[in-house]
Amino acid sequence: MKEKEGNKKGKQLSSVSRREFIKGLGAGALGTAALSGGIIALKEAEAHPAEESLEEGIKIPLRLKINGIRYKVEVEPRYTLVDVIRDQLQLTGTKKACDRGECGACTVLLDGKPVYSCMTLAITAAGRDIMTIEGLASGEELHPIQQAFLENDAFQCGFCTSGQIMAVNGLLKQNLNPSREEARNALAGNICRCGTYTRILEATLDASQRLRKGGGNRG
Ligand code: FES
Ligand code: FES
């Protein structure tokens, strides 16, 4: 596996509310954020030197494994995963919309489970398997979930689509044959402002069928 040096410029975040939020969490424990069907992001953080230093402006080295590739970045402990993924590593397939855990546009998989990356501190993802939309296709070949979205016209503007697809991926990793109701519940944390919900649901069930025929969820 190759190791990349991440862009160290790093975005200077200045949200007072986020800083207060992080301080409110304390240095050792990170809360939980529910996403579609109760799946979640934050948990007790691993012991990490960064947690001793929540001062703005102080950066610490961090290793992230995304789509099987290991990256080294430098982050402030308050940086969210979505900002590191997009701004430092240029993996811009993951979208940031509400930036407060309401829309699901920023959904990625963390150890196979969908999380809102805007509500996940980058330091809590150290040593864990992160998957973004860029990790799904195999070269020019779309992943069956992507193909199902395409063939079911499950998007309009497409801004929510990568988050929707990653949420579907998380669902089908846990349940390869969801009922319509189970699929609907699993996707409840992902908003589509274009209102393409019916087609997204059809695409989800179609993807489930494709994956079962193909022998499982490889992505
Ligand atoms: S951008 Fe993360 S939930 Fe909306
Ligand atoms: S396709 Fe436009 S927001 Fe979902």
Task: Briefly say what this structure is.
The chain has 219 residues and is of the alpha/beta class.
Outline the fold blueprint.
Layout: E1 3-5, H1 16-25, E2 34-35, E3 39-40, E4 60-66, E5 69-75, H2 81-88, E6 107-110, E7 113-116, E8 129-131, H3 144-151, H4 161-174, H5 180-186, H6 197-214
Parallel strand pairs: 1-5, 4-8
Antiparallel strand pairs: 2-3, 4-5, 6-7, 6-8
Helix pairs in contact: 3-6
Bound molecules: FE2/S2 (inorganic) cluster (FES) (2 copies).
Q: Main β-sheet, in a few words?
A: 6 strands, mixed
**CATH fold descriptor of the largest domain:** Ubiquitin-like (UB roll)
Percentage of β-strand residues: 5-15%
What small molecules are bound in this structure?
FE2/S2 (inorganic) cluster
List keywords for this structure.
alpha/beta; 6 helices; 2 domains; disordered N terminus; DNA polymerase, domain 1; six-stranded mixed beta sheet; binds FE2/S2 (inorganic) cluster; single chain; Ubiquitin-like (UB roll); 219 residues; globular
